[in-house]
């Protein structure tokens, strides 16, 4: 007897394009939310766009966060309980969006995502990434009720943040390969729809990397739509599998051993060069991934990440210990093999 069910939670409104920040009030109005909004932001986006957001709402409250941590989530939750908002608006990059996402979940209210940078797919996904000590936790939460991404603002953001978002998307390519491998060898549940959407999104960025350039709204448009697609793939799957495989495990280990050296997207991008090599060998697609990252001015080597060769090899050999998720690194890779992979792909010097 067939008893399978699924519950796919997606944003109701996704508004992307030139000047759409000024349509935020209208987009929120279509959600029929009640109560005052609490705008959750960080210092820079608050300076850049905070007043434009506040001007569109009656009696908005604002909370400015300075770091992503579980303590920050608790503090925001306490602030929100005093304000008693009907919903949250997350304005900015990863910190305010991840914190607002978790706080909204704790409070039992919805939130609206208003990214000012395109550095990761958390702008639309139902997961928050929160650091704690020498590790980083991926925490499930509801996705935003709406996403309003103004390409004017995003095109003006630091280019390295955009390239990190691109690299994060490109790494989906190997994440899906890990997911399929887990399906074949461990009978892990696999969604053809989510896998195909995630893989297609990564392939489109690889194939069009030469068209993505700093300061161009057209480029911001392409990257944001790719990030939205990646987030939707995770919502369809009900997990981070479409966008997180061995390359993310390697990145998490680098967060532990070399915290703050490189952006998350850049780390998973470099890691995906190596994991693709492990999947398909010297004649596989690893060179296409490397070349696409290089075309985007994203790092392709440990040195460009600011990571020592030894630190990278240590992360590669221990990444399988991070969590119980079947990937190409299942059971681990020894130091000699790790050096060979990193050298063959040019991630470290031979």
Automatic annotation (TrEMBL):
A Pfam family recorded for this sequence: Fe-ADH_2
Cofactor binding description: Binds 1 zinc ion per subunit.
Record-listed substrate binding positions: 121, 168, 252
BP term (GO), one: phospholipid biosynthetic process
Positions contributing to glycerol binding: 121, 168, 248, 264
Any GO CC annotation of this UniProt entry: cytoplasm
InterPro entries, per the entry: G1P_dehydrogenase_arc, G1PDH, Glycerol_DH
Record keyword DNA-binding present: no
Principal place of residence: cytoplasm
Enzyme Commission number(s) from the entry: 1.1.1.261
Catalytic activity: sn-glycerol 1-phosphate + NAD(+) = dihydroxyacetone phosphate + NADH + H(+); sn-glycerol 1-phosphate + NADP(+) = dihydroxyacetone phosphate + NADPH + H(+)
CDD domains xrefs: Gro1PDH (cd08173)
Residues annotated to bind NAD(+): 94-98, 116-119, 125
Transferase keyword on record: no
GO function terms (MF aspect): glycerol-1-phosphate dehydrogenase (NAD+) activity; glycerol-1-phosphate dehydrogenase (NADP+) activity; metal ion binding
Alphabetical list of SUPFAM superfamilies matching this protein: Dehydroquinate synthase-like (SSF56796)
Compartments in which it is found: Cytoplasm
Binding residue positions for Zn(2+): 168, 248, 264
Protein family per UniProt: Belongs to the glycerol-1-phosphate dehydrogenase family.
NCBIfam families in UniProt: PRK00843.1
Function description: Catalyzes the NAD(P)H-dependent reduction of dihydroxyacetonephosphate (DHAP or glycerone phosphate) to glycerol 1-phosphate (G1P). The G1P thus generated is used as the glycerophosphate backbone of phospholipids in the cellular membranes of Archaea.
PANTHER family: GLYCEROL DEHYDROGENASE (PTHR43616), GLYCEROL DEHYDROGENASE 1 (PTHR43616:SF5)
Protein name: Glycerol-1-phosphate dehydrogenase [NAD(P)+]
Organism: Halorubrum saccharovorum
